[in-house]
Amino acid sequence: MFQLNMDPDPIEMANEVKNKVILHWNCRGLVEFPEVIRLHGGHIQEIYLKWNRLTTLPPWITELFNVTNLYMYGNRIEQLPAELGGMSQLTVLDLSANRLQLVPTCIGNLSNLRSLFLGDNFIERLPIDLSRLNNLEILSVSGNQIIALPEWIGSLPRLRELYVDNNRLRELPNRLTVAPELTMISVCSNRLRYLPLNGFLSAPCIRFDANEYLNYISYPLLFQLLSQLHTSVVHDRDCLAFGCFKTHYDTNVLNTNIKLYIKTRGLYETDADIIIELPRQLLKIHEIHENVTCSLWELALRKVYTERYKHTLDISVSPANVMIFYEPLLKNTKSDFTSSTSCTLYNLLTNGPTSICVNPQCQQPIFTEAWIIIGISRHAESLITIALCCCRSCATAFSAHSNTTVSLHWHSID
Question: With a threshold of 0.85, does the pTM exceed it?
Answer without folding.
Answer: yes
